[in-house]
């Protein structure tokens, strides 16, 4: 049965206990995938530095909400606490990796192909009309890239940071090739897929122009939640606030990141089903 978490002054966390893990291979890549839950499928792709206790806290919340959650581990050490050292251990490799192509524009990234295959596999093993994909930070844009695949009915782009926003063109780039964006836009026009984007208002790593590009392509099929992180904001967020669904969440109804996480759950239910 779902549990009601106690109110917290820190981000919710989880552990690897109870998660089944197995390797998944496709597109010439192999990554471990952690899975738990029942109900429609949701792929939750971790942010840098990896599958942290905070990411697991979000995964647990989605399981409690009635979803089968698959969490790939494409980088980092599963269960490791986030730290500057952990980021520095992971980020340099990601910056030069051909799998992710962190600086490139108008390219098809190999990890996108692997993620699409995982979505299809999860869809084949879970109830409901299709699956959702959530990407965060470094992996945020990959959720939209996964929506090329017909099994993906819902894409959540939380603070999508790739390509790195160096220069105007990269700042406005949605993180997938023009051809793939065209496929997603056509699916959106037919009502086959919807997307939800989340960012903090002062987050320079996730320029507003990036979401404007997605909105031009998807129109009304793209919903944006922008949390106020300007000086003196009601939520008490710092100007450096970044991780909408993990580090900034407090288990307090009314707290803006809490409400953003609740909107994500409602969005997934709208697209995939499960009882409220």
UniProtKB/TrEMBL annotation:
Ordered alphabetically, the record's keywords are: Hydrolase
Q: Which residues form the Dienelactone hydrolase domain?
A: 39-243
**GO molecular-function term, one example from the UniProt record:** hydrolase activity
Q: Does the keyword Hydrolase apply?
A: yes
Q: Which SUPFAM superfamilies match?
A: alpha/beta-Hydrolases (SSF53474)
State the source organism's domain of life. Bacteria
Could you identify this protein by its name?
Dienelactone hydrolase family protein
